[in-house]
Every structure is written in structure tokens, then in C-alpha cells.
From TrEMBL:
Domain ABC transmembrane type-1: 43-319
Any Pfam family: ABC_tran
Origin species: Paenibacillus glacialis
Localization of this protein: Cell membrane
GO molecular function: ABC-type oligopeptide transporter activity; ATP binding; ATP hydrolysis activity
Gene3D superfamilies according to UniProt: ABC transporter type 1, transmembrane domain (1.20.1560.10), P-loop containing nucleotide triphosphate hydrolases (3.40.50.300)
Similarity remark: Belongs to the ABC transporter superfamily.
Membrane topology term: Multi-pass membrane protein
Protein name: ABC transporter ATP-binding protein
Length: 601
């Protein structure tokens, strides 16, 4: 059976899938490893609390059989005293068990969140380029929640209830083994249909949560697009669209409640049926003096308590199976290996990378079906300004991604200061390279925090010096809170040029030996561009600069130009020489001039 939910058909078979269950389950449980001692303590506390809780009916049995029948008042007070002490001890162990359970749950889910972040970092740019942000966010929202759910309910409940059932069956056996055997047919009767109702109720329960999220997403979309809907007279269309999702939600809710009710009713039916058996046999045994009255009363308590917990274990197992299947995507994500293996040991002294790049016979493709770069052999000298130019799609950005080691070349090598770039540690490389893009991220905090991002350990004076070098000190000092001014989400309260100068200040603080730019200032007006250029010129001094340039007017003063076409390097040299050669760069410059003049020159 399947139900139509929105545009996606969700099949119930997903609930039954078990081929991934064990590896995923083992992986989930591996998160308990750091808290092994606490897990043992949790089980111990649970065991003690359960033994005490279940010893109480035994005490009642004693009370009925000896104290009450023999009318011994002193015994009566003694039993009450024991009971009181036992309850206090039991409560202490229950509190301990609850605290440990909560600690284990929260710590393990915190750890999984850290692991997701670390894995995202490990997978790096290739993963972000292949996966949409929605999917990544959903891993955090849904899968982490499922993970918490497993540690909140399923795993601890299965452990707790199992302890209860084992201890309780032991006490039942000490009363009468024949009565205890009645549990078997009673449980088998439950097992006949119970898991079916469990599966259905759990499945619809999960769908209910997903549909609820979908309905609120759609409502949010409808509210955000009210103007467009009215302008296009599309209210009816929107209503019909929402109705579909709401109908799916409602039918899910009805199905869930129905199966949950049937699950509960069937559960009660089976163990009450067994209860009748216990009554009949119990009365018979009392009549034949094979069972005491107190023993019978205590047994009744154990029977109902055990049956309830036993059937609850089945419920938790069903829920757990579904949740584990749903967490499979997170498991697969955590099992991914980065395209570029990360090297950890630092092999060069801090600040010693100078930026002398040599690319030898380099080929690259993102996917097996298409070559993006072919036979690239080129030098990008240290301490110089190199510009990479060429038509759109010729592979400029791809080269820069390879220089940054975001990707691994398909063939050939990249040497940095004479050493294969793959042999540098991640830390060495990231410390040595700074980036400057048209768009970059400013955090919603203060200007100081945003500059400090370049080197969090920098002093206040270093931040101010960086601000001065980047020509942003003056405008910062004019703001009401100066360096402590809050700049709004993504730096919304600043102009484009001001934001870019903050980014330059950040780079001053980071102090990398190599700076990679992607047509950094093309989105600015002339005044802002000149201001940013002034700050960039300060930054460039003594560093290796590699720039992707779209406007050829910006590369005149570069030392070295690499001209690309269709994934190949077609020309290299300085600007003047290449122009005089009147080949590809000359063509590009001429075309740019033509475009600017509207094709008239
Ligand atoms: N992550 C990716 N996966 C697959 N193909 C990609 C990816 N990034 C870029 N490409 C392809 O590689 C080719 C070169 O792209 P690249 O971005 O390097 O060109 P570019 O010269 O920088 O272009 P532009 O000047 O337009 O930015 C293009 O055909 C592009 O479609």
C-alpha cells in the first residue's frame, strides 16, 4: 500500500528495508563508545531501580501471607519501614539513570553534529559544488533529529524494558512457573498481529511529521508570494496546491490515529485474554493450596507489568527499524571520502610558502564524460602578479581551484615552491593562500569580529592597523560604534566598496603569501573601485598575486598573463609583448574595445 503525499509517492516498503540496517545501526551505536562507562552506569542504575521496584510486589506478597493473616502489628510496621526505605533507594537510582540517559543522549547527538561539520569540511568544495544547500541543511534538520530520537526513546527504552522483563520473569518464576508459562501464548497472540499495527502506526506517524513540515513550507511560500498571486490572479491555483498537501496531511493523521488505536486495543486485548488464563489457573492453584493469596496478587502485578513492557519493546523495535532506515542518508554522507585526500602533518615552516607554481602536463575533468583542461604546462612565478584571461568557460576558475587544491588533477602535477602540491598539509596550504572575490561573506557581528576572522588571535591594535592599510579606518571611525559597529546580516549596512575594504583588512591580518582574486572589483562603480584598488595595491606588495580577469583593462600592470581558450593555454607573456604579437590577447582586447563602443569601432 502506498499513499500519495504531495508530488512524491512514499512507499511503505521503505519501512521493511533491512539490508542497510545492521551497518547503520552499528555506526549509530559506535557513538556511545566515548561514554562507555556512563552507559554501563546507566544500565547498572536501571537494573538496581528495576530490581527494587519489582521487589515491592514480593514484599506485598509477604505482607498478605504472613503479616496480614497472622495479624502481627510489629511485622506490619517493619514491612512499611522496609517499603519506605526501598522506595527512597529506588528513586535515587531512577534519578541517576535518568540523568545518565539524558547526558548520553545530548552528548552523542552533539558529537554527531560536530562530526557532520567536520565531514563537510573534509569533503570540501567538490561536495558543495555537487550538492544543493537544501540537502545539506536537511541532513542537519532531519537526520540529526532522527538520531536524537533514537537516543531519546528507542535505544534507552529497549534497554530499560528488557531489564524489567528479565527481572520480572525471574520474580514470576519464583512464584509459580505454570502461571508464568501463560505469558507465552498471550505474547504469541500479540505477535501475530501486533507488529503489523506497529509498523503501520509508525509509518504514518513519520509521514505525519514530514507532511506537517511540507504544509508549513507551502504556507510560508503562499504568504511570501501574496503579491504575485494577486497580480496573476493565481489564488485559486495556490489554494488547490495547498489543498493537496493539507489533504495528504489530514489523511495521514487519520490513518496514524486509527492504527495507533488498533495497536493499543489489540495489545490490551491479548494481555487481558492472558490475564483471564492467569485468573482461572491462579484460583485453581489457590484452591489446591499450591499458591498463596499473596503470591497470586503479586503475580497479577508482575504479569500485567511484564506484558505491557514486552509489547512496548516490540513497538520500540519497529520504530527503531524505521528510524535507522531513515538515517541511512546521514550514514552514507559520513562514509563519503574527499576527492582530495587531506594531509595533516605540517612539512614546511609557517609562512615559508612563497607561491612559485609550476603546472606540468595537467589534465582535468570534473566528470568522466568531459575534459575541462588539457595538457596545461605553465609557470606562475612567485612574488609576481599573474592574470589568467580567456573567454567564458575556457577553464580559468578551474585552474584556480586546482592551484588551491580544491580538486586533484586528473593527470599531470602542480608543484608549489618545487614540491608537489599534494604533499603539503591542509593547514600549511590554507594559511598561505588568501582569496578575494566579488562576493564574500561578512558575518552579522561587528566590524572588529569580521576583520578578526582573518586571524582570530590578533590584537586590537593589529585590527586597527589592518583597517588603516585597507583604507577603511576612516569610514569605520565615522560610524557610531567605530570598530564595534554591528554591520547587519551579510554586512547589509555597508556599501559594496566598504564591504570589500573590510575583506582586504581581513586579508592584511591573515597575511598570506599568495592571493587569489576573481575579478574582484568589477561589480563596483568607478569611485568605489578606485578606493578598493588603492587598498588592494597596498595588499599586493611582496606577495604572489593570481587573478582571474574578465575586463582586460585591469591587467595592464600585471607581470605575467596566461591566455586560455577551450581548456588550453594558448599564450603566455607580459601584456605589452602579447599585444605586439597580435594574436589571442590582442584579439580579446580588440573585441572588448568593440563591445564597449557598441560594436562601432
Ligand atoms: N563543478 C563543476 N562541475 C562540472 N563542470 C563544471 C564545474 N565547474 C565548472 N564546470 C565546467 O567547466 C568549464 C570551465 O569552467 P570555468 O568556471 O573554469 O570557466 P571560466 O573560464 O572560469 O568561465 P567564466 O569566465 O564564465 O567564469 C565550463 O564548461 C563549466 O561548465
Amino acid at each position: 500500500m502506498s499513499i500519495e503525499v504531495g508530488l512524491k509517492k512514499i512507499n511503505e516498503e521503505t519501512v521493511k528495508r533491512s539490508y542497510v540496517f545492521w551497518p547503520v545501526y552499528k555506526w549509530i551505536l559506535s557513538h556511545l563508545r566515548p561514554f562507555l562507562l556512563k552507559v554501563v552506569m546507566f544500565i547498572f542504575c536501571g537494573l538496581v531501580a528495576t530490581v527494587i521496584e519489582l521487589a515491592i510486589p514480593k514484599l506485598i506478597q509477604h505482607f498478605i501471607d504472613y503479616t496480614l493473616l497472622n495479624k502481627q502489628i510489629s511485622q506490619y510496621i517493619k514491612v512499611l519501614g522496609y517499603l519506605f526505605v526501598l522506595v527512597i533507594i529506588m528513586l535515587c537510582f531512577q534519578i541517576g539513570s535518568n540523568i545518565l540517559e539524558r547526558f548520553i543522549r545530548e552528548e552523542s547527538s552533539k558529537e554527531v553534529q560536530f562530526k557532520i561539520l567536520a565531514q563537510l569540511r573534509r569533503l570540501g568544495i567538490p561536495y558543495f559544488e555537487k550538492t544543493n544547500v537544501g540537502e545539506i541543511i536537511s541532513i542537519f534538520n532531519n537526520e540529526v533529529q532522527i538520531f536524537q530520537e533514537l537516543f531519546r526513546r528507542c535505544i534507552p527504552d529497549i534497554v530499560k524494558y528488557s531489564i524489567i522483563v528479565i527481572v520480572s520473569v525471574y520474580f514470576m518464576l519464583t512464584i509459580d512457573y505454570r502461571l508464568t508459562l501463560i505469558m507465552i501464548p498471550s505474547f504469541l497472540l500479540y505477535y501475530l498481529l501486533g507488529p503489523y499495527f506497529e509498523r503501520k502506526a509508525t509509518f504514518y506517524g513519520q509521514q505525519l511529521v514530514e507532511n506537517k513540515t511540507r504544509v508549513s513550507d507551502k504556507l510560508y511560500e503562499s504568504l511570501s508570494s501574496l503579491r504575485e498571486l494577486r497580480a496573476y490572479s493565481a489564488e485559486e491555483w495556490d489554494l488547490a496546491r495547498n489543498e493537496r498537501y493539507i489533504t495528504a496531511w489530514v489523511s495521514n493523521a487519520v490513518a496514524h490515529d486509527l492504527f495507533a488505536f488498533m495497536r493499543g486495543s489489540y495489545r490490551r486485548f491479548t494481555y487481558h485474554l492472558g490475564g483471564i488464563g492467569v485468573f482461572l489457573l491462579g484460583v485453581y492453584l489457590i484452591k489446591n493450596e499450591q499458591l498463596s493469596l499473596g503470591g497470586f496478587v503479586a503475580f497479577l502485578f508482575y504479569y500485567f507489568f511484564t506484558m505491557q513492557k514486552l509489547t512496548a519493546i516490540v513497538t520500540r523495535f519497529t520504530e527503531q527499524k524505521l528510524l535507522v532506515t531513515q538515517i541511512e542518508r546521514l550514514y552514507q554522507f559520513m562514509s563519503l571520502s574527499p576527492e582530495v585526500p587531506l594531509k595533516r602533518e605540517n612539512t614546511v615552516k609557517r609562512g615559508m610558502i612563497k607561491g612559485d607554481f609550476r603546472l606540468i602536463d595537467l589534465d582535468f575533468q570534473y566528470n568522466a564524460d568531459r575534459k575541462i583542461l588539457s595538457s596545461i604546462t605553465v609557470d606562475l612565478p612567485k612574488g609576481k602578479r599573474t592574470a589568467i584571461v580567456g573567454s567564458s568557460g575556457s577553464g580559468k576558475t578551474t585552474i584556480v581551484k586546482l592551484l588551491s587544491r580544491f580538486y586533484k588533477p586528473t593527470n599531470g602535477s602542480i608543484f608549489l615552491d618545487g614540491k608537489d602540491i599534494m604533499d603539503y598539509s591542509e593547514e600549511d596550504l590554507r594559511e598561505s593562500i588568501g582569496y578575494f572575490f566579488q562576493e564574500f561573506y561578512l558575518f552579522g557581528g561587528t566590524i572588529k569580529e569580521n576583520i578578526l576572522f582573518g586571524r582570530p588571535s590578533a590584537t586590537e591594535q593589529e585590527v586597527i592597523d589592518a583597517g588603516k592599510h585597507a583604507y577603511c579606518h576612516e569610514f569605520i571611525m565615522e560610524l557610531p560604534d567605530q570598530y564595534n559597529s554591528v554591520i547587519g546580516e551579510r554586512g547589509i549596512k555597508l556599501s559594496g566598496g566598504q564591504r570589500q575594504r573590510i575583506a582586504v583588512a581581513r586579508l592584511f591580518l591573515k597575511n598570506p603569501s599568495i592571493i587569489i582574486l576573481d575579478e574582484a572589483t568589477s561589480a563596483l562603480d568607478t569611485v568605489s573601485e578606485n578606493e578598493v584598488k588603492k587598498s588592494l595595491d597596498m595588499l599586493y606588495k611582496g606577495r604572489t598575486i593570481i587573478a582571474i580577469a574578465h575586463r582586460l583593462s585591469t591587467i595592464r600592470d600585471y607581470d605575467h598573463i596566461i591566455v586560455m581558450d577551450n581548456g588550453r593555454v594558448v599564450e603566455t607573456g607580459d601584456y605589452q609583448t602579447l599585444l605586439e604579437r597580435k594574436q589571442v590577447l590582442y584579439e580579446l582586447v580588440s573585441n572588448e574595445g568593440t563591445d564597449k563602443n557598441g560594436g562601432s569601432s
